[in-house]
Amino acid sequence: MHRVDDPLPMSANRNYQYVRRQTSMGSSTNEQSSSRENALMNLTTTNFSNSYDWKSQIKRPLPDTRYKTEDVTATKGNEFEDYFLKRELLMGIFEKGFEKPSPIQEESIPIALTGSDILARAKNGTGKTAAFCIPVIEKTDPDKNYIQALILVPTRELAFQTSQVCKELSKYLNVEVMVTTGGTSLKDDIMRLYQPVHILVGTPGRVLDLANKGVCKLTGCSMLVMDEADKLLSPESLPSIIQVMSYLPESRQVLLFSATFPVTVKSFKDKYLQKPYIINLMDELTLKGITQYYAFVEERQKVHCLNTLFSKLQINQSIIFCNSVNRVELLAKKITELGYSCFYIHAKMVQSHRNKVFHDFRNGACRNLVCSDVFTRGIDIQAVNVVINFDFPKNSETYLHRVGRSGRFGHLGLAVNLITYEDRVNFYNIERELGTEIKPIPADIDRAIYCQ
Length: 452
Ligand SMILES: Nc1ncnc2c1ncn2[C@@H]1O[C@H](COP(=O)(O)OP(=O)(O)OP(=O)(O)O)[C@@H](O)[C@H]1O
Ligand SMILES: [Mg+2]
Fold this sequence. Notes:
The structure is a single chain. It is built from 18 helices and 14 strands. The protein is an alpha/beta fold. It folds into 2 domains: 58-280, P-loop containing nucleotide triphosphate hydrolases (Rossmann fold, 3-Layer(aba) Sandwich), CATH 3.40.50.300; 285-449, P-loop containing nucleotide triphosphate hydrolases (Rossmann fold). The chain has a 7-stranded parallel β-sheet, with helices on both faces. Strands 10-11-9-12-13-8-14 form a 7-stranded parallel β-sheet. α6 packs parallel to α7. Bound molecules: adenosine-5'-triphosphate and magnesium ion. The site of magnesium ion (MG) has 4 residues, from α7. Magnesium ion is lined by residues 128-129, 227, 378. Residues 289-449 form the Helicase C-terminal domain. Keywords: ATP-binding, Chloroplast, Cytoplasm, Helicase, Hydrolase, Nucleotide-binding, Plastid, RNA-binding.
């Protein structure tokens, strides 16, 4: 991994502040509990005699004044206070800088609170995480000392990120959130499970391991969330999911979320969900804020082409996708030789190294990240305004999720695809399946379309 010869300038734009503000992942339990103790201490020592008082205590981040598209602004006009949530949860929501619910939050929060099963489809970056975390936290009773909700996600980094969101939203409540994934010490997880845990966030393999050992007791777990549900229900992880589900009570509530639901999910839905409420906010598939271009190149011209992109584009932070672990490492080396800073991440790296790269990139320590599909789903880094498919993906789901790493929460972003002769069929199919137009890259790209 190559380090910071090109740290982001403080003046880059306000996105930079965004990256810096995001809480570090994987911080120690001690740090988290002491920050919560402080938060709870402040809460109890403050006089919240009327609604004005508690709202005036909230430490909201600077408002996000960047342009946002209809993907997040076309709401019904609900307020978070309309959902009769606990005041402490509302405080967590407002302190995260959420002013109003996004469209998917408006649709799913009230339904999830009623206990209904949900299958929800909404575009990338439109706030699905909070759409399930808010009702899960609201329905969790901190006085009951057992796991009440299980949130499954397909990758370790996404598990850390999701647990962090849960912890931030429940900052003023006594809710204990634990994250468990492969690549970390099983013994530590077993020890942790002797302490109270109310919400467990994890990857399916590790959760199943702990459940099989009898240390992770899920008999009282009445809520099961599967984020990136179509990925979790793909043939590789479906058997683990079914086994994990066998540990939960029959009456559990199941919430499935993703931006993509291929038909293969239907048989699972029919078998395991009870009268699910279907939410589909994808009248079109791609994000309104992302402009997509392609450059037709020969394989041997790709690095040169990338070099030209680096020199011409105004990259705040970029994610560059390759189709194999080997190519990730080779490309990262090439980029460094060209004199640009870059990190890389893929699933064959040791977890401690993966954690460091994820944490440092998120904090703006480096401008470019080369990665495999381990970073394709769910990863939320607000400062990323450019995604480059150095290798073109093979299917439309992967394409959509990769491109959705920029343009978070309705912001603007740019996707550039390097296309070779061998990619032409996939390119045609993906354009057709997504009903979108990927245009040839112009000589000059107006900064206004991806830098606001
Ligand atoms: N109501 C809100 N107001 C402002 N920002 C929000 C709101 N809800 C979510 N966000 C922010 O939007 C960003 C994207 O949210 P999130 O990661 O939940 O999207 P997603 O729909 O899960 O995307 P993906 O499909 O890529 O996983 C996050 O940075 C989150 O903090
Ligand atoms: Mg998500």
